[in-house]
Design a protein that fits this description.
222 residues, four-stranded mixed sheet, binds fe (ii) ion
């Protein structure tokens, strides 16, 4: 028996919430930026609306939101290979909930293909997740006790006052608009740590036949 599992069901799952919370707690101890509900909910919104705006079905939008919400749970096991361990965890959870194997397959494919070194936009949900995840840069991801002088990730995230991913269907572009406080961080800092992410975003945008652009403080940099 398979059920139609909705994004709402996933958000209301105490089990999934437990893993998200515990995974973020480990990352906090290790000094990583916020990877909790704010991050995964934002990824779900961005991935879902991107697919919606590109004309994908409501069902595919729902799958993208579920994949995005669950994409970082593997961090509860270890940061290394968290995409793959998270995909296996998601398989067990969704299978147990009675999700249609076709839908489970789409979701675990996306989760298993989201992390930098092994990421690949193998389907629309995976491509949308990569774009949502890799473009989530913002001041509120920096933890309260972080030292922005010594940690470049914290500094760059802290410097980003505003970030927005904008789709232009006419121009066939997907642009990440950043407002960067250059008193906190130089734009070069951003490139130093985010070049890999930007390359990946470009590849994911190409899946949709879009050109990925980066616009920082009004200047197109990429
Ligand atoms: Fe991740
Ligand atoms: Fe993430």
């Amino acid at each position: 028996m398979t059920n139609k599992i909705t994004f709402e069901d996933i958000k209301n799952s105490k089990e999934i919430r437990t893993y998200i919370k515990q995974a973020d707690e480990s990352l906090r101890v290790m000094g990583f930026t916020e990877h909790s509900f704010a991050h995964v909910t934002k990824c779900a919104e961005v991935a879902g609306s991107l697919l919606h705006d590109l004309g994908y079905s409501d069902h595919e939008v729902e799958l993208a939101k579920i994949a995005a919400y669950m994409h970082d749970i593997g961090n509860v096991i270890n940061r290394a290979d968290h995409a793959q361990s998270g995909a296996v965890m998601a398989f067990r959870i969704l299978d147990k909930m009675g999700m249609d194997p076709k839908d489970t397959a789409t979701i675990i494919t996306a989760i298993g293909n989201h992390d930098e070194a092994t990421a690949y936009p193998v389907n629309a949900v995976a491509a949308a997740l990569i774009l949502a995840d890799k473009t989530d840069v913002r001041r509120s991801r920096v933890r309260r006790n972080a030292d922005i002088h010594t940690d470049i990730h914290d500094r760059v995230n802290y410097a980003v006052e505003k970030s927005e991913l904008v789709l232009d269907k006419e121009e066939k572009t997907l642009t990440l608009f950043l407002t960067v406080d250059t008193n906190v961080s130089a734009i070069m800092d951003y490139f130093e740590i985010f070049l890999g992410r930007m390359k990946l975003s470009r590849r994911a945008a190409e899946f949709f036949d879009l050109k990925f652009q980066l616009n920082a403080n009004g200047t197109v940099l990429l």
